[in-house]
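Q: I'm building a small set of examples for a reading group on sequence design. Run inverse folding on the following structure and report the sequence directly after it, with nothing in between.
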C-alpha cells in the first residue's frame, strides 16, 4: 500500500478550492465583474492536478500490478462518480442520454468528442495518458523516458509558442496546427506535458529520498516555504513566474514534500487529519460541475454571490453524498458481488 503524503493532499484541497472559485466567477457574470482575476492563474490549477497525477502514476507503473490491472483500476476509479454526475444531469433534463457513449469511452478530453461536463475532460486525459504511460514504460523503460521527454517538450512548445510556430494568427501553418489540435485535442496536450513532468518528478524523488542531513533539511525547509508561497501567489495573485517555470518549481516541491526533506513537509506529513477533508476532493471536483449545469439551466438569475454559494456549497454537499453513497457504499458492494460470481 502506497504511503499517504498528507502535504500533497493539502495541496489538492487548495487546488479544488481554486477550481470551484474560478468556475463560480466564470459562471456568475456580476460576481466576475466585482472580483476579476487581476492576474491570478486559477485556470492553471488543473495542470497542478495533472502533475500530482503523473507523480503517483509513476509509482503505480513501478508496482507489481499487471498492466491490465493498472488500466482497469484507473477506469473503474473514475467511472462511478462520472456516471452518478451524468445521471443527475440527465434525470433533471439538462443533458441528453446520448452522451453516455462519451462517458463510457472516456474520450471527452480528446479531439474526438466534446466533454459533456467539464470534469470529464480531465479524467479522460488522465485515463488516456495512463494507458499511454503503462504501455510505454512496461515495454521499454529507457525508451519510455526518451519518448516521454520528447512529448513533454513538444507539448510545452506547442502550448507556449503554437501561434508563433504557425507564423502568426494568419500564418501559413495555422491549418496544420488546427488539424493537430482537432485530432489530439488541446486538453490532451495539457495533460501530456503536465503528467509527464509529474512522472519525472516521481523518478527524481526516488533518487533523493535518502538526503536527510541537517544542513540539507534546513535548505529544503527554506525551499518549501518559498515554493509554497509562490504557488499560492501564482494561483490567487500576480506572480512573476511564467507558465513553464511554475510547473518546474511545483514538480521540485513535490520531490521535497513526498520525501519529507524539509521540516515543514515532515510536520505536515504527520497530520493524518488532512485526509478527513482531502478524501472528498475527487467527488467535489466532479459534482460541482453538476451544480454549474443546474445553475445555468434552472437559476440563470443567480449571477452574484448567490450563484457562487449554490455552486460551491452545492458541489461540496453533492461531493460528500457521492463519496459516501457511491464510492464507499455502492461500489464496494458491487465489487464484492461480481467477485462472488
Amino acid at each position: 500500500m502506497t504511503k499517504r503524503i498528507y502535504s500533497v493532499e493539502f495541496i489538492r484541497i487548495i487546488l479544488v478550492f481554486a477550481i470551484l472559485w474560478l468556475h463560480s466567477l466564470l459562471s456568475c457574470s456580476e460576481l466576475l465583474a466585482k472580483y476579476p482575476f487581476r492576474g491570478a492563474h486559477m485556470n492553471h490549477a488543473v495542470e497542478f492536478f495533472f502533475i500530482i497525477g503523473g507523480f503517483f502514476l509513476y509509482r503505480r507503473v513501478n508496482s507489481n500490478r499487471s498492466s491490465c490491472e493498472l488500466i482497469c483500476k484507473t477506469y473503474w476509479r473514475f467511472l462511478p462518480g462520472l456516471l452518478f454526475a451524468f445521471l443527475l444531469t440527465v434525470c433533471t433534463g439538462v443533458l441528453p442520454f446520448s452522451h453516455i457513449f462519451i462517458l463510457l469511452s472516456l474520450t471527452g478530453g480528446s479531439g474526438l468528442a466534446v466533454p459533456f461536463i467539464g470534469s470529464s475532460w480531465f479524467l479522460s486525459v488522465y485515463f488516456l495518458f495512463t494507458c499511454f504511460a503503462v504501455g510505454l514504460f512496461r515495454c521499454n523503460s529507457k525508451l519510455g523516458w526518451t519518448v516521454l521527454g520528447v512529448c513533454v517538450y513538444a507539448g510545452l512548445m506547442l502550448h507556449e509558442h503554437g501561434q508563433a510556430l504557425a507564423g502568426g494568427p494568419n500564418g501559413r501553418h495555422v491549418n496544420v496546427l488546427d488539424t493537430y489540435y482537432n485530432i489530439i485535442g488541446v486538453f490532451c496536450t495539457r495533460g501530456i506535458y503536465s503528467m509527464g513532468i509529474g512522472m519525472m518528478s516521481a523518478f527524481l524523488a526516488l533518487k533523493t529520498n535518502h538526503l536527510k542531513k541537517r544542513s540539507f533539511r534546513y535548505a529544503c525547509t527554506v525551499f518549501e516555504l518559498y515554493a509554497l508561497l509562490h504557488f499560492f501567489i501564482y494561483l490567487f495573485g500576480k506572480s512573476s513566474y511564467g507558465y513553464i517555470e511554475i510547473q518546474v518549481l511545483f514538480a521540485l516541491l513535490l520531490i521535497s514534500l513526498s520525501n519529507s526533506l524539509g521540516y515543514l513537509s515532515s510536520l505536515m506529513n504527520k497530520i493524518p487529519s488532512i485526509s478527513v477533508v482531502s478524501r472528498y476532493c475527487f467527488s467535489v471536483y466532479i459534482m460541482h460541475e453538476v451544480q454549474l449545469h443546474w445553475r445555468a439551466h434552472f437559476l440563470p438569475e443567480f449571477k452574484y454571490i448567490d450563484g457562487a454559494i449554490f455552486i460551491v456549497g452545492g458541489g461540496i454537499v453533492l461531493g460528500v453524498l457521492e463519496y459516501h453513497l457511491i464510492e464507499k457504499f455502492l461500489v464496494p458492494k458491487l465489487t464484492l458481488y461480481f467477485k462472488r460470481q
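The radius of gyration is 21 Å.
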